Amino acid sequence: MLKHLKILLYPFSLLYGLVMWIRNRFYDTNMLTAVEFDLPVIAVGNLSVGGTGKTPHVEHLIRILKDKYRVATLSRGYNRRSSGYLLANEASTAAQLGDEPMQFHQKFPDIEVCVGEERMLAIPQLLGERPETEVILLDDAFQHRSVKPGMNILITDYHRRFTKDHVVPFGRLREGRIGYQRANCIIVSKCPPELSNAEKAAIRQEIKPLPHQQLFFTSLKYGELYDMFSGNPVSAPEDTTVLLVCGIARPEPLLQQLKESYKNVFLLPFPDHYYYSVPDLEKINRELGNLPGNHKLVVTTEKDAVRLQLLEDRLRPMNIPIAVMPVEISFLYGEGESFNNYIFTYVDQFGSNHD
Length: 355
Description:
355 residues; ATP binding; 9-stranded mixed beta sheet; nucleotide-binding; lipid metabolism; lipid-A 4'-kinase activity; 5-stranded mixed beta sheet; lipid biosynthesis; Aspartate Aminotransferase, domain 2; Rossmann fold; alpha/beta; globular
């Protein structure tokens, strides 16, 4: 029944795909003009709607660039409770910036983090306030054609590759598959760490990268649990009962990771980018209390933590033990250095070519 209902969505996908193709065609032929800026601009995004692991890839770029250059990130600030351009400061919250920009701001206080729906207007404002900026990372900007980045990085989920997907609402793509041709670099994310060379070759053949495109493969690498408020390491024995509380697009990889470390793991899911309420906290506390075991722990993601911290005054008196599971990316086949050098070459050559 559901399959037949989904088929009814296919004509709408064709229509939406056509609209996006026309829009892209206008930019490709300069009927619509994209603004270029006189500094390296790296856009990171995807063809699909959420869940590709984009955030840890942006954080990897921040890590490798921030010690050599003055870095700024610019995001739309999805689902934030503010509008317009904002530059993060010490008083900023996830409600003002959005969860991902707030996460960048907390983890990397030595870079500039800003949000703005209109990137072509936000960049001049950023440069006006922080003229020393040397590199801008555009977060989730693959479809934001009004700014022409010097480098486009496209991320596609190993489990949901764009080559096997369709345009919304029939599938999960924001535009047709042909959009991949705009990328300078394609990253297949969330791969199994043991991905074989044969499957790597098969995926390369499936994606068919163009001569100018680089192709990399990454997997998720989870870190050590830490307390959400103190930041101190959390040591939880194997018999700990874990309640995973998260509002992310795809909790399955984290759920599986926890099940490999703990015997009793339960999931309490919320919508992606969800803002928690006091009744939600009470529900979390109640769910945790109803679970079996003497040692119990709530585990959440870094994105969820910045949203939960908005209710810190209500959370602390409840004494709910909450640990955060950080995540990074790991490049397969030892290609991390090649990727880093690829990025450095672009940034350095940009400066040389514009002297």
